[in-house]
Amino acid sequence: MKPSRAILLLAALLFICNIWGYDLWAPDEPFFGEGAREMVVDGQWLVTHVNGKVNTHKPPFFFWLIAILSLPFGRVLSLTARLPSALASLGTVAMILRLGRRMSSERTAVLAAFVLATSYMFWDKARSVQIDAVMCCLIWVALSAFASWRAGDLEGRRAGLVFWAAGALAVLAKGPVGLLLPLGIALVTLAVDREIRRWRDFAPLSGPLLFALICGAWVAAATLWGPAEYSVWGALREHFVDRGLHGMHHAQPWWYYAKVLPPRRSSDLKRPPSRGGGSQPASPSWPAF
């Protein structure tokens, strides 16, 4: 068996084995499981609600995934609730393998994928009913399309459409951060490499239009046919204003990232240039955003 296939098999075992064997754990797993269960039961798929109460800070995409997988069973199971995270994490490992081959070699790709798949936090999120694994996968889909375009493996317009579509789904999974991260990273990378003019080849009009169509379709439907007490604009205010000014759930001082990012990223400054030159997805220009 090829090492890359062995890594994917190992990841599948780590992420999927026995995720059906124990109940959903508080606090997050029952929240998402109940939200998906209520979608299946009452048919209200446009706006998430838990215990009958409208939820304003979690978009519906992750709940949709759980609910769709649960439809054949008529109820939410531990397996159907955790499977979206497991499959998304497996997809992320596969993209790391591909990226490693492009940046360096097969050996580097296999080692990078092995480190990722066996890292505790990544493994934990892969087996948890939380949005993080799905959003991480969608962000990597966007960044992989961007990297493929820069490497000449994918035509600009097609790569741009994939980038913006993945960003739209990430926004529907966890809000604006799903687009802000890959978009900021892409623009900073081009700016650092003095290639910002190349953005005009990366679906500069059709990409944002596709993003607007995907997100706008849900916004329109939720506004017209969702519960009367739900406001998309109120949710956006919560994500942009409240989260930005006050923090939510994990509030830290304004200088928090100035403290934690430099030590964690200092190794990037010592890393030799990647094959082919230019900024790559692990370069120091990415966390600058």
Would you give an account of this structure?
With 289 residues, the chain is mainly α. The protein has a two-stranded antiparallel sheet with strand order 1-2. Helix 7 (132-151) packs antiparallel against helix 8 (156-174) and helix 8 (156-174) packs antiparallel against helix 9 (177-192). Helices cover 67% and strands 1% of the residues. The longest helix is centred in the N-terminal third of the chain and has 26 residues, at 78-103. It is globular, with a radius of gyration of 20 Å. The chain contains 13 helices and 2 strands, in the order ααββααααααααααα. The protein has one domain (3-244, 273-288).
Task: Show the helix and strand layout.
Layout: H1 3-16, H2 28-42, E1 49-50, E2 53-54, H3 61-70, H4 78-103, H5 106-118, H6 120-126, H7 132-151, H8 156-174, H9 177-192, H10 206-225, H11 232-246, H12 256-270, H13 285-288
Antiparallel strand pairs: 1-2
Helix pairs in contact: 1-4, 1-5, 2-3, 3-4, 4-5, 4-6, 4-7, 7-8, 7-9, 8-9, 8-10
Features:
289 residues, mainly alpha, two-stranded antiparallel ribbon, 13 helices, 1% strand
